[in-house]
């Protein structure tokens, strides 16, 4: 790795749909409690000052930043495997590890949905923001990852408004109906059951209703009061899901349960003859894979979406990347300049004190009370410090690092002589 790329002490390791099939990805899926525990553990890793974990239906990513030289020896993929109690050597080939500028560029594209299995994914921004919020709550977020992720989300919003990524619905639920159309499966007039009342389940139910399906959504009794039921959907008790199977043409499952919501053995006891479609929108999977071996059953999971392609993707990526360059540069400039923030503060402090001292004799010639004169001196000192700091920060905007660094170093030496 080139020297300039090593200056950004940021690394990520990701396992996603590109290299890992669903049966491997689900090994690295993390519940909210798992993510919280891993974030707490990250603080114990030598050389790590910040950590963010992104865990969605198609990816698990472990992001770290650090300051110590020992950070360069860390392998975030190995850290993630250790957290999941899996042998890294068994899974190394499924990981993609990025660092420095490559990681920054990837995150910018990720937040736009350019790295998603469903191109232009509309949900990824909110998923990334939630990951950052959780890291902050667990006190695992340092200033580097805070600024990086904030800049990436801001850039993604700009891309979404400037590039026609949103000319169609890019949600998993919309992709589900697109997949069914591609497979020649009609939804109109079909009896549909959606297992799961989370965000994905509600979106899926709404899409099925929109397509003309008669939709029932399962609901656990203890969640009845807090549940949001999409318009046009009936409710059935989660415990009655097997009993209702024989009346359903399309079954969708989208929960965060670590266990199967439907097993092949119990489903086989309930199903009558006829063609049925089962769609698994969960990672780890909700539907036992053996369901697909039952007569008359067509089973789709998250890997099924890889066959969907959208027109104009390459052109949109090129336009989006051009927009994102500004945000990548903005972060890189901040990163390089951050070590000089204490220097700027010291220069500004010295300038403010010197200005106030030079005006002290002049102020004594005015008929002011001592308290008034002292307050005025403080105001002058503060104002002078702000002006000098603003000028110093302005160097970052108008000069290359190789120019502003020696300039600030020179100003620091000069300010030392003021004291």
From TrEMBL:
EC numbers, comma separated: 1.2.1.70
Domain called Tetrapyrrole biosynthesis glutamyl-tRNA reductase dimerisation: residue spans: 320-409
Keyword annotations from UniProtKB, A to Z: Coiled coil, NADP, Oxidoreductase, Porphyrin biosynthesis
Binding site for substrate: 56-59, 116, 121-123, 127
Active-site residues from the entry: 57
Reactions it catalyzes: (S)-4-amino-5-oxopentanoate + tRNA(Glu) + NADP(+) = L-glutamyl-tRNA(Glu) + NADPH + H(+)
Boundaries of every Glutamyl-tRNA reductase N-terminal domain copy: 14-162
Enzyme class name: oxidoreductase
Molecular function via GO: glutamyl-tRNA reductase activity; NADP binding
Pfam families in the record: GlutR_dimer (PF00745), GlutR_N (PF05201), Shikimate_DH (PF01488)
Binding-site list for NADP(+): 196-201
Gene3D superfamilies: Glutamyl-tRNA reductase, N-terminal domain (3.30.460.30), NAD(P)-binding Rossmann-like Domain (3.40.50.720)
Superkingdom of origin organism: Bacteria
GO biological process, one term: protoporphyrinogen IX biosynthetic process from glutamate
Quinate/shikimate 5-dehydrogenase/glutamyl-tRNA reductase domain span: 185-305
Pathways involved: Porphyrin-containing compound metabolism; protoporphyrin-IX biosynthesis; 5-aminolevulinate from L-glutamyl-tRNA(Glu): step 1/2
Coiled coil residues, start to end: 356-386
Domain description: Possesses an unusual extended V-shaped dimeric structure with each monomer consisting of three distinct domains arranged along a curved 'spinal' alpha-helix. The N-terminal catalytic domain specifically recognizes the glutamate moiety of the substrate. The second domain is the NADPH-binding domain, and the third C-terminal domain is responsible for dimerization.
Family statement: Belongs to the glutamyl-tRNA reductase family.
Note: During catalysis, the active site Cys acts as a nucleophile attacking the alpha-carbonyl group of tRNA-bound glutamate with the formation of a thioester intermediate between enzyme and glutamate, and the concomitant release of tRNA(Glu). The thioester intermediate is finally reduced by direct hydride transfer from NADPH, to form the product GSA.
Complex and partners: Homodimer.
Function according to Swiss-Prot or TrEMBL: Catalyzes the NADPH-dependent reduction of glutamyl-tRNA(Glu) to glutamate 1-semialdehyde (GSA).
Protein name: Glutamyl-tRNA reductase
């Amino acid at each position: 790795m080139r020297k300039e790329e090593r200056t950004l002490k940021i690394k990520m390791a990701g396992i996603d749909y590109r290299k890992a099939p669903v049966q491997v990805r689900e090994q690295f899926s993390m519940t909210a409690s798992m993510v919280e525990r891993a974030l707490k553990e990250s603080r114990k890793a030598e050389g790590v000052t910040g950590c963010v974990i992104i865990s969605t239906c198609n990816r698990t990513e472990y992001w770290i930043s650090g300051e110590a030289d020992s950070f360069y020896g860390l392998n975030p993929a190995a850290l993630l495997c250790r957290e999941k109690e899996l042998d890294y050597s068994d899974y190394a080939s499924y990981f993609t590890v990025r660092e420095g500028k490559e990681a920054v560029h990837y995150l910018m594209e990720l937040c736009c949905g350019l790295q998603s299995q469903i191109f232009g994914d509309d949900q990824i921004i909110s998923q990334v923001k939630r990951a950052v919020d959780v890291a902050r709550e667990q006190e695992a977020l340092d200033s580097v990852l805070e600024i990086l992720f904030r800049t990436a989300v801001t850039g993604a919003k700009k891309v979404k408004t400037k590039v026609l990524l949103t000319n169609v619905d890019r949600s998993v639920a919309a992709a589900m109906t697109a997949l069914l159309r591609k497979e020649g499966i009609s939804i109109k007039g079909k009896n549909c059951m959606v297992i799961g009342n989370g965000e994905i389940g509600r979106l899926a139910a709404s899409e099925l209703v929109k397509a003309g399906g008669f939709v029932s959504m399962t609901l656990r009794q203890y969640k009845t009061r807090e549940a949001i039921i999409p318009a046009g959907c009936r409710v059935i008790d989660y415990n009655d899901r097997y009993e209702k199977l024989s009346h359903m043409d399309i079954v969708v499952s989208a929960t965060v349960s670590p266990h199967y919501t439907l097993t092949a053995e119990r489903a086989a006891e309930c199903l009558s003859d006829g063609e049925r479609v089962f769609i698994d929108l969960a990672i780890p999977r909700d539907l036992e894979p053996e369901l697909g071996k039952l007569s008359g059953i067509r089973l789709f999971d998250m890997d099924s979406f890889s066959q969907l392609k959208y027109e104009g993707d390459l052109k949109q990526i090129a336009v989006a990347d051009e927009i994102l360059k500004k945000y990548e540069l903005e972060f890189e400039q901040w990163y390089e300049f951050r070590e000089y923030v204490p220097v700027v503060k010291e220069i500004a402090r010295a300038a403010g004190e010197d200005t106030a001292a030079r005006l002290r004799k002049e102020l004594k010639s005015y008929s002011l009370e001592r308290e008034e004169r002292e307050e005025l001196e403080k105001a002058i000192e503060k104002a002078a410090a702000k002006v000098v700091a603003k000028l110093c920060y302005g160097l970052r905007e108008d000069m290359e690092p190789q120019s502003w660094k020696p300039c600030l170093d020179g100003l620091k030496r000069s300010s030392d002589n003021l004291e």
